């Protein structure tokens, strides 16, 4: 099996001043994951590494670039799923953790649970020796600016939500034919304290099954949950649809049924992949057969040999 990895940096509107950085970041993330696959590593390790790269990049709404909740705090969600065993681990509303995706994997491998939340997740992180970080280190000038603007009387509700769908994610298939999915987010801009979105919910924020493939979505979390978007896409693939057709069909259903906008990256059990979205933009990148593909706008796809990046 030729290894494949696809990542996204979030659906929404990015803005000219951040577009270049967002596109560069997904390329760096996908190459970080691909290097693991090149060495014969697992899809699970590859998607985790790719998501860590984006959590560590302040360009994205995850990890150190997370948006702020209504009180100006950071609460993050993440999930990882192994298509070989259907094992999954997730965390929700966690604070003071630099890489929630790493904590999610510990939940998967070190507990009998699928998801830990808030204080419980923090207690588990301490027990596992995961270092705490100061909450202020996870905030950027950009996230603070958007938080303040969204609170201001008379603020434009469209402008204040621009870029809020900044969830990051990755899917991969390794040389053994195993698939995996990982997703991480700071959630919705100015969300209520304690709000949990689609990301840590199996079948919504991620799904991976060796029989059919893997999905990582981004977009309006409540809409994604209403249609269980990730599992819906795999259902269409079970019925024989290609990753692209399955993604388009499910995204259109979410748009017409619950007026939800978003995007997905998908890989099937044969190594075919897709990056599709109904939002104005979604930074994405993929590597297959030592060719790097990336784009930002609909219908846009650039290709580079991996050796030149």
Automatic annotation (TrEMBL):
State the reactions this protein catalyses.
L-asparagine + H2O = L-aspartate + NH4(+); Cleavage of a beta-linked Asp residue from the N-terminus of a polypeptide
GO molecular function terms listed in the Swiss-Prot or TrEMBL record: asparaginase activity; beta-aspartyl-peptidase activity
Q: Does the keyword 4Fe-4S apply?
A: no
Keywords per UniProt: Autocatalytic cleavage, Hydrolase, Protease
Q: Which CDD domains match?
A: ASRGL1_like
Enzymatic class: hydrolase
A Gene Ontology biological process annotation? L-asparagine catabolic process via L-aspartate
Q: Which residues bind substrate?
A: 195-198, 218-221
Q: Name one GO cellular component term.
A: cytoplasm
Which family does the entry's similarity section mention? Belongs to the Ntn-hydrolase family.
* Name of the protein described by the UniProt record: Isoaspartyl peptidase/L-asparaginase
């Amino acid at each position: 099996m030729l290894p494949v990895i696809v990542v996204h940096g979030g659906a929404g509107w990015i803005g000219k001043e951040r577009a270049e950085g967002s596109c560069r970041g997904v390329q760096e993330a996908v190459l970080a994951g691909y290097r693991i696959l090149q060495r014969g590593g697992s899809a699970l390790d590859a998607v985790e590494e790719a998501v860590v790269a984006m959590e560590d990049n302040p360009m994205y709404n995850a990890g150190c670039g997370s948006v702020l909740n209504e009180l100006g705090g950071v609460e993050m969600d993440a999930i990882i799923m192994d298509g070989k065993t259907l094992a999954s681990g997730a965390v929700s509303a966690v604070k003071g953790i630099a890489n929630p995706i790493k904590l999610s994997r510990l939940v998967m491998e070190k507990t009998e649970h699928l998801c830990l939340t808030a204080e419980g997740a923090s207690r588990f992180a301490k027990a596992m020796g995961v270092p705490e970080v100061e909450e202020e280190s996870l905030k950027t000038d950009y996230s603070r600016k958007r938080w303040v603007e969204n609170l201001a009387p008379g603020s434009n509700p469209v402008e204040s939500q621009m870029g809020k769908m900044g969830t990051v994610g990755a899917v991969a298939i390794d040389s053994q034919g195993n698939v995996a999915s990982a997703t991480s987010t700071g959630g919705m801009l100015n969300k209520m304290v304690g709000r949990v979105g689609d990301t840590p919910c199996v079948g919504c924020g991620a799904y991976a099954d060796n029989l059919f493939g893997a999905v990582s979505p981004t977009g309006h979390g409540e809409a994604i949950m209403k249609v269980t978007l990730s599992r819906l896409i795999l259902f269409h693939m079970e019925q024989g649809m290609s990753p692209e057709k399955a993604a388009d069909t499910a995204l259109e259903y979410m748009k017409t049924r619950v007026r939800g906008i978003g995007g997905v990256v998908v890989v099937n059990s044969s190594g075919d992949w897709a990056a599709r979205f109904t939002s104005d933009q979604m930074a994405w990148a993929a590597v297959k057969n030592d060719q790097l593909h990336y784009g930002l706008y609909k219908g846009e796809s650039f290709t580079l040999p991996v050796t030149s990046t």
